[in-house]
Amino acid sequence: MVTVTPTEINFPHVETIIKIQRKSTDNKNIEKSEAAYYVSSVAIDKYSPQQWLQLIRNHWGGIEIRNHWRKDACLLEDKTRSRNLNIVASLAMLRNCYLHFHEQQEKYKSLPALTEAVAADTKLSYAMLTGNL
Predict the structure, then answer these.
(1) In a domain, 110, yes or no
(2) Composition of the chain by helix, strand, coil, percent to 5
(3) In this structure, is residue 90 part of a structural domain?
(4) Total domain count for the chain?
(5) What band does 14 get if pLDDT is binned at 50, 70 and 90?
(6) What radius of gyration do the chain's Cα atoms show?
(7) Are the C-beta atoms of residues 35 and 86 closer than 8 Å to each other?
């Protein structure tokens, strides 16, 4: 962990950079090691190293549960095969909008239920786009 200033690395509000060395084993029992860097606007001495680690784990765990899993399991994001960055970015934006629409409505409790309803009724798609959902 190191203390930095925003002007040192041209990153607004940064105070701390943390490097975590990750080690993992794949399904073929091959070990892999990689470095992950985290940037924070919180002072380095606010948390102990163990607390920093727990905060980072909780943050990424929440991202995986709230966002990535829903995008992958329900919206098949990982099956996107395009290498065109504009297409990939556009599809990611549309998926984010779709998740937002799901959170804003109350009728369809699950994402698959909303997806089935949209697929069955084109008027529902139009209602989502015009804000009348």
Answers:
(1) no
(2) 55, 15, 25
(3) no
(4) 1
(5) very high
(6) 20
(7) no
Dihedral through CA 81, CA 84, CA 87, CA 88, nearest 10?
Answer: 60
In terms of Cβ atoms closer than 10 Å to its own Cβ (0-12, 13-18, 19+), residue 17 is middle
The Cα 19–Cα 38 span in angstroms is: 6
- 72 lies in some domain: no
Do the Cβ atoms of 18 and 11 come closer than 8 Å? no
In this predicted model, what pLDDT tens digit does every residue of 95-130 receive, in sequence order? 988 988 888 888 999 989 999 999 999 898 888 888
Domain containing 27 equals 1-44
Tokens of 79: 């099956």
pLDDT tens-digit map of 17-69: 999 998 989 889 999 999 999 999 999 999 999 999 999 988 877 777 777 88
Distances (CA, A) of 64 to 22, 59, 75, 99: 17, 9, 14, 14
72: tokens are 């992958």
- Helix, strand, or coil here: 3? strand
User: Residue 129 corresponds to which tokens in the numbers above?
Assistant: 């786009």
Report d(CA 16, CA 43) in Å as an integer: 6
